[in-house]
Amino acid sequence: MTDKSEYKDSFRCGYVAVLGRPNVGKSTLMNHILGQKVSITSRKPQTTRHRVLGIYTDDDAQILFVDTPGIHRKEARSINRYMNRAASSSMADVDVLLFVVDGTQWTDDDELVLEKLSHAKGKKVLFVNKVDKLADKEEVLPHIAHITEQCDFDAVFPGSALRGHNLDELTKTLKQWLPEGDLFYPEDYITDRSERFMAAELIREKLMRSLGEEIPYSSTVEIEQFKFNDKGILTISGLILVERSGQKAIIIGKGGQRLKQIGRDARIEMEELFDSKVFLELWVKVKDGWADDERALKSLGYDDYR
Ligand SMILES: Nc1nc2c(ncn2[C@@H]2O[C@H](COP(=O)(O)OP(=O)(O)OP(=O)(O)O)[C@@H](O)[C@H]2O)c(=O)[nH]1
Question: Which residues have CB under 6 Å of ligand 1?
Fold first, then answer.
């Protein structure tokens, strides 16, 4: 470990890539550290489809979190290939790689991420999450041994993103490995994502939560209107794109009830996020086979990974 005293007077700023297979708790971890929701979470895997930059600032450092989409073995659909490429590219040019695993479950997908990580450059930190679920905390030890045998980590933390266990210690460690430098973003920024993007993500989150197992990621959301009127009311029109008409019917629900509930839930969080009264309109449209068409994906804004 580096002696922290030598850093005392200098401000640090840099990038931390958050890596891990879907559903291990990456978004929960980032949201907890930032103290606000910037990345959507759900019980189903693969909700993080976009790279979200979360920004943490305190008196001595600014951490720029790059939240990566899941890495998968199954690359059959374009959208999966796209997500894999995005995840790999976010490993390059960062100061610290933060590998998040679920302390209760190790899978082939974890193995795949670990394999990619072992070839990457930069400081590496392992966060073994969901330890709150283990009756006997020592159960994580063989898990940690298995992982660290395959890849050298500069620090290892068992903890819980949901309960905030060990996150202060993690943050302190991440900060000390950032290069010296001034703030990249103003101190009150928590993301560089646009308000439109945040609005779309909120709708998508409510959609996923409401649909249970039915439509994992064959739907997407476009924001067609995002406008304040002269009374300060924000009008947002969201277009939900699905692959088949059956899916459209499911989303709309009996007598439009499900769509109404999705809209109500999204609107409440939007009002808090944008600090304004919100009028939200939602539409559902069928766009056949969009997930298999990489060009269509790009036209929908999935081309912003560098
Ligand atoms: N018990 C427990 N559950 C957790 C913890 N961290 C996350 N979860 C739950 O695990 C599920 C997945 O969490 P996410 O943060 O969405 O996972 P993710 O890795 O960002 O997933 P993708 O977006 O699919 O890549 C959610 O239901 C979380 O509430 C934890 O520390 N303890």
Answer: 20, 22-28, 41-43, 45-48, 70, 129-130, 132-133, 160-162
Distance CA 217, CA 221 (A): 11
Strand order in the sheet with 12-19: 52-57, 61-67, 12-19, 96-102, 123-129, 155-158
d(CA 102, CA 85): 23
> Parallel, antiparallel, or unpaired for β 234-242 and 220-228?
antiparallel
pTM: 0.68
Across the chain, which has 306 residues, the per-10-residue mean pLDDT values are 50 91 88 74 55 80 78 50 56 85 92 88 94 91 92 96 96 95 81 80 89 69 87 91 87 94 95 88 82 55 40
How far apart are the C-alpha atoms of 35 and 81, rounded to whole Å?
Answer: 32
For ligand 1, what atom is nearest to the CA of residue 165?
A: 31
Which residue's CA lies nearest to atom 13 of ligand 1?
25
CATH superfamily ID and name for 195-299: K homology (KH) domain (3.30.300.20)
**CATH number attached to the domain at 4-176:** 3.40.50.300
Query: What residue ranges do the domains of the chain occupy?
Result: 4-176, 195-299
